[in-house]
Amino acid sequence: GYTDTDSIRIQLPEGYVIEGLPKPLDVKSKFGSFHSGIQVKDKEIYITHRLFMRKGVYSPDEYAAFIDFRKQVAGQYGGKIILKKE
C-alpha cells in the first residue's frame, strides 16, 4: 500500500472574507482511508489531505465499493472555497 499526504496553505487576498469551505471528511474502508482537515487562522486557510491505500487483491464483486470510496476522495479534492469581498 501507500500513503499520500498533501498540505496546502492559502493566504486570503486583502479585503476578502471566507463565505464557504468544504467540510472535513474521514472515510475508512477495506481499500484504505482518507482524512481531510481544514483550519482557518490569521487570514490563512490550511488544508490537509491524507490518503492511505491498502495493498490487496479484490474480487470483481468489490469493484462498486472501491469506486464509491474513490468518488468520496475525489469529491473532497474538488471541494470549493468561496470568498466574498468585505
Give structural attributes:
four-stranded antiparallel sheet, elongated, 51% strand, single chain, Jelly Rolls, 1 helix, alpha+beta, 86 residues, two-stranded antiparallel sheet
Short description:
By secondary structure, the chain is an alpha+beta fold. It contains one helix and six strands.
**Structural class of the secondary structure composition?**
alpha+beta
- Helix % is 10-25%
Query: Radius of gyration, rounded?
Result: 16 Å
Shape: elongated
Ends apart, CA distance between termini? 46 Å
CATH architecture: Sandwich
Total count of strands: 6
Give helix and strand order, one letter per element, not per position. Answer: EEEEEHE
CATH class: Mainly Beta
Mean pLDDT: 95
Write the layout of secondary structure elements.
Elements: E1 2-11, E2 16-20, E3 25-29, E4 32-41, E5 44-53, H1 63-77, E6 82-85
Antiparallel strand pairs: 1-5, 2-6, 3-4, 4-5
Protein name: DUF3858 domain-containing protein
Structural commentary:
There is one protein chain. With 86 residues, this protein is of the alpha+beta class. The protein has 1 helix and 6 strands, in the order βββββαβ. It has one helix spanning 63-77, and strands spanning 2-11, 16-20, 25-29, 32-41, 44-53, 82-85. It is elongated and about 55 Å long. It starts with a strand and ends with a strand. This is DUF3858 domain-containing protein.
